[in-house]
Amino acid sequence: xxxxxxxxxxxxxxxxxxxxxxxxxxxxxxxxxxxxxxxxxxxxxxxxxxxxxxxxxxxxxxxxxxxxxxxxxxxxxxxxxxxxxxxxxxxxxxxxxxxxxxxxxxxxxxxxxxxxxxxxxxxxxxxxxxxxxxxxxxxxxxxxxxxxxxxxxxxxxxxxxxxxxxxxxxxxxxxxxxxxxxxxxxxxxxxxxxxxxxxxxxxxxxxxxxxxxxxxxxxxxxxxxxxxxxxxxxxxxxxxxxxxxxxxxxxxxxxxxxxxxxxxxxxxxxxxxxxxxxxxxxxxxxxxxxxxxxxxxxxxxxxxxxxxxxxxxxxxxxxxxxxxxxxxxxxxxxxxxxxxxxxxxxxxxxxxxxxxxxxxxxxxxxxxxxxxxxxxxxxxxxxxxxxxxxxxxxxxxxxxxxxxxxxxxxxxxxxxxxxxxxxxxxxxxxxxxxxxxxxxxxxxxxxxxxxxxxxxxxxxxxxxxxxxxxxxxxxxxxxxxxxxxxxxxxxxxxxxxxxxxxxxxxxxxxxxxxxxxxxxxxxxxxxxxxxxxxxxxxxxxxxxxxxxxxxxxxxxxxxxxxxxxxxxxxxxxxxxxxxxxxxxxxxxxxxxxxxxxxxxxxxxxxxxxxxxxxxxxxxxxxxxxxxxxxxxxxxxxxxxxxxxxxxxxxxxxxxxxxxxxxxxxxxxxxxxx
Length: 673
Ligand SMILES: [Zn+2]
Hints:
The protein is 41% helix and 13% strand. It is an alpha/beta fold. The protein has three domains: 4-175, 2-Layer Sandwich (Chitobiase, domain 2); 184-475, Alpha-Beta Barrel (TIM Barrel); 506-664, no CATH class. The strands form seven sheets. The chain has a seven-stranded mixed sheet. Helix 12 (420-431) links the parallel strand 21 and strand 22 (436-437). Helix 16 packs antiparallel against helix 18 and helix 20 packs antiparallel against helix 21. The longest helix is centred in the C-terminal third of the chain and has 30 residues, at 599-628. The structure holds zinc ion. Zinc ion binds next to loops.
């Protein structure tokens, strides 16, 4: 067995000063534990030892695969960053390893090792135990658990590590995740190291493709990406391109196989929202045997390239092919049957290939109950959109069901909000025996998505909350989480930060935000039309606005006592938004009621419109100050996005200006360019 040895084993080396362990008072323990996120299930720090960073040595196998190499890299990076040196000391050993069959790590028995097997999700569980006063051991049943143990260790050490000293906790930790899978989908790969450090483990890997014969795409697996997933203890599953019904839109499949497209009007989901988003695409005709051949070939191809678990996404959105054959059954049954049969075909050649089916089809109907009942037991069920009863029943009956229906993390306006919407789906999912509740991560800002390097800034708070409750459902209260988050981020008064988040979380999110034509739900998208028809532009009553203003002022008073700028800058943005909503309400009243045949009526509308434009400029300026605080690469992102947001307002402003001019039958006033 080969071990990475940064030291010669032995104590009392020249130059090191051994200090006896000290008791850690309860209050200090609690303070220390606030540096941990998520909160471990069982933790006690009765004693600690104070040493010099140069006294510490890390011991870990360096021939046991990428996870252990990563752990060593993480820990050495911490020592280099905080202490300016490598952990190559000899006085105190930190030993990390996967337990062998005798329950030992590096030939040393680990207390309570046998207990690990009885932990929930034991493959990801770990122990931290002192071994006398000169060793601390992190042990797990496999490399995933070890990775999480190392993250806890890293957070514990980071709290008390400086250039001159380190306080090592002689901690006793037993920990495991409540949810087997935790995290987000649709987030960038580059954000993985940061998410994994929060013990999140799900990030959808989508395989690539090259064009094949007759417009059938050939999947391409990126081994580097699979390796990266392993290195960070992430779930290793490859998504087979996209929803089956998008294979024509993206790859031109129906050019050679027009019969694969679902028939009839009812094959297309109905509704304005789908049209607006250009997602009114027919479901597939799942009765066509050619579909089974295509999917089986793609699965074989992915397995041949190293994929061991694949998820296939069914047609997206409601629809039912109207061909005679499909009408004998239902869309959800036919699609899940075709994917199951394709997988069974692929398994003849690749018996260890695992399958997940992503149910973007299915509802509360008996057809869905039957579709799920017909699945072989080893197929895992993934469900997006509403978790209807058949999916919950399947989970209750012991099926493996993962939900993709957690709260959407995409609001870059209100970044420090924990709503029921974020925590509830996780706690409910835990009770319902789901394997995880993932969030869609699509933080749009300006014209597009926030770049990966900005994730740790813009999304740290909501993703930390997701990490907290997915790992330890009944651990912290919202207030305790806020205090822990603020402690980790260097706030002078974490309890006050917690108070601030409670006040701003109560704000109505509908009042906050900048105008955009690209967002279907943005109230300004249709404002010009409403002016033309003299309809109300406003969504909020005077009473609602007064309450919101009061909330903003209270929040600002709290935020200004904090040592970090973000809460105050963000609160001023909210204040500007609410003030702007008040000006919009005033204009709205006049648009509906004022007599524009009279000069005084026209004057009132003009003045109200001017006031709204001024208020909107204040919103954009406040938003700009919020974005200016985000420092990451590419550095020009912040400027670009500010221009884009302003551009979207100018477009709407122009349309509103023309509509108002039409109403007043005057020439448009000059619009800022
Ligand atoms: Zn059909």
